[in-house]
Design brief:
The chain has 413 residues and is of the alpha+beta class. It folds into 3 domains: 296 residues, no CATH class; 37 residues; 51 residues, no CATH class. Helix content is 41%, strand content 16%. The protein is built from 13 helices and 12 strands. The strands form 4 sheets. A 4-stranded antiparallel beta sheet has the order 1-6-7-8, covered by helices on one side. Strands 3-2-12 form a 3-stranded antiparallel beta sheet. Strands 5-4-9 form a 3-stranded antiparallel beta sheet. Helix 7 runs antiparallel to helix 9. It is flat and about 100 Å long. The termini are far apart.
């Protein structure tokens, strides 16, 4: 493809009457701190890295299931063609954890996650290959369809929406979600500037623990003698606490942290909390527990809040995108659904898992074999029958009691 045809291809979505074009910026976003904000610079911020690591890890390690409705409820549709792709192997190179972690990070940073639908000879989707979101341009064509264009490894592509899985982030625009990099550029830029300033200070500034002062003038030889004496007898951990004897009428003056330094530390802490707000992550979940207790029910409730109000909306967004763009009308009519299994969050909490199973078994909404299957245990004979506690029955069913639990009714003579 010639240079001119490449330019025409890039402009085609803009000059066509009645179209809209959207593309992510790749060079970085400007801000008042004059810092370049892009994927690489943001991932160098420890708070952003921790938030993305937490969100991506939580989503990618949850089991993504395909279910089929039955007259008695629903069952796992392990025989469906989508189950292997979504649950195990989305493509030849990535595991399901790798793929969904990549897609989650793309959603968090760019507001969009893309994957090409790989099709077999019969035209059926046999895999999903992720596309870097920064290189994808989206256009609303005059016929109403959305077209995706990108160039990768020197190859230019134009694909209709039927061949691209597009998971949109916050914002709800059909052409794509809002980019956290763009709308959070000021917060990211400030954090980068604070880190850069702190590094420059520690690299260039003189930071002794204190000074020795004297009212008399000292010769270079005398200063050298004192410095050599201090280095030999008092430097290092093994000489810690050793008595110090000096002449020359020297007085020790301790140096403390200046107000400017304290203000910089407070600014960096505030910057960390700002990044947590951007990603809707409780600060304690990335190791910042300064303003909250580090143990107990307070953190348990914050963790539940993260699952309910932050993680759940992300999972729902992915589930609905997969349903809309991967399931056929025949699949939907047959009751095929796609859903993350949130019970996967309990795998590391044996106490909570035990309480959950106990309630399920005692109230009869799970069987013994269903619980054993979740624990990767083989079924047992008679374990497919739901059970309930004997005391959970109507009070009128108790022998010797009358209507509404009153005394027994006397038979008429």
């Amino acid at each position: 493809m010639s240079w001119f045809s490449g330019v025409v291809d890039r402009l085609s979505g803009i000059i066509r009457l009645g179209t809209r074009t959207s593309v992510e910026g790749s060079a970085g976003y400007g801000n008042a701190a004059a810092e370049s904000v892009n994927d690489y610079s943001v991932m160098n911020l420890t708070a952003a890295w921790a938030c993305l690591n937490l969100i991506g890890g939580a989503i990618s390690t949850l089991p993504l299931m395909v279910y089929r409705s039955t007259p008695g409820g629903r069952v796992l549709a392990t025989d469906h063609w989508l189950y292997r792709i979504l649950h195990d192997d989305p493509n030849a190179d990535q595991t399901a954890v790798d793929f969904w972690e990549y897609m989650s990070v793309a959603l968090e940073l760019r507001g969009n996650a893309y994957a090409e639908k790989l099709r077999g000879v019969s035209g059926q989707v046999i895999g999903l290959d992720p596309i870097p979101p920064a290189i994808v341009a989206r256009s609303r064509l005059s016929n109403g369809e959305i077209e995706y264009r990108w160039t990768w490894n020197g190859v230019s592509r134009r694909e209709a929406s039927e061949n691209v899985l597009h998971i949109r982030g916050f914002g709800g625009d059909p052409l794509g979600g809002m980019s956290t990099l763009q709308f959070g550029a000021e917060a990211f830029g400030l954090s980068q500037a604070l880190n850069r300033t702190a590094g420059t200070v520690f690299r260039n500034a003189v930071r002794p623990s204190g000074v020795y002062q004297t009212a008399t003038k000292m010769t270079p030889e005398q200063r050298g003698e004192i410095e050599e004496h201090l280095a030999k007898r008092h430097q290092g951990a093994e000489n810690s606490g050793r008595p110090l004897v000096l002449g020359f009428d020297l007085k020790w003056q301790q140096l403390t942290m200046s107000p400017d330094d304290m203000q910089m530390l407070e600014s960096r802490k505030f910057s960390l909390e700002e990044l947590c707000r951007l990603f809707i992550v409780p600060p304690f979940m990335i190791g910042h527990t300064e303003k909250s207790t580090s143990w107990g029910t307070g953190l348990e409730q914050q963790t539940l809040g993260f699952v309910k109000f932050s993680l759940r909306r992300r999972l729902k967004r992915i589930e609905q995108a997969l349903r809309k763009q991967l399931l056929t009308p025949a699949d939907i009519a047959a009751g095929i659904t796609i859903e993350f299994n949130l019970e996967g969050l309990l795998r590391g909490d044996s106490k909570a898992r035990s309480a959950f199973y106990n309630a399920a078994l005692q109230n009869g909404w799970m069987t013994i074999n269903e619980v054993r299957a979740l624990e990767n245990l083989p079924p047992v004979e008679g374990g497919d029958v739901p059970r309930m506690q004997m005391q959970n029955q109507p009070i009128t069913a108790q022998p010797g009691l009358g209507h509404n639990g009153g005394p027994p009714l006397k038979e008429a003579a």
